[in-house]
Amino acid sequence: KHDDVTIYSLDLKRFPDHRAGRGGMSVLSDNAIRVLVHNKGLIAPFTEQALQGASYDMTLGELMVIGGIPKTVSRQNGGHDLEPGSFALVTTHEHLHLPRDVVAHYGIISVWARRGIVSLVSPQVDPGFDGVLEVPLFNAGDANILLLPGDNFFTIEFVSMAEPASFGWA
Q: Is the pTM of this model over 0.85?
């Protein structure tokens, strides 16, 4: 991993405009993600330990909707047990600011899928998205699954587009 001096000395010039000449899309590396975090506020809060070679592991947020009722859940109050056959709408702790030339794809981390959690959403985050992700989950397993804010839950990859979208925040 890189120290703070290295992270903040990264420059977009080090990552040439991969749209020029190729006409395609590219999955962003950890270094390119760091540059976008620093220069564009891509992920907030950002934790170096959550960064992978070509993705970022996002955590469960405290806001959940259980049985149609919004709840604030914390580690201190024991989280929430999602019963078999139950739905929950969960949020990410991290806030995303996608530039107009970046699209993202996400999914649940496999350990949760093996326990029976199914994500009921399209995995694409459009360019220009600004906010936390809201993800409907279903417990298809045969046991309660404890949802604790702060647990790594989703992995997200960022893809540079061939050209920027015509609208969005940046």
A: no
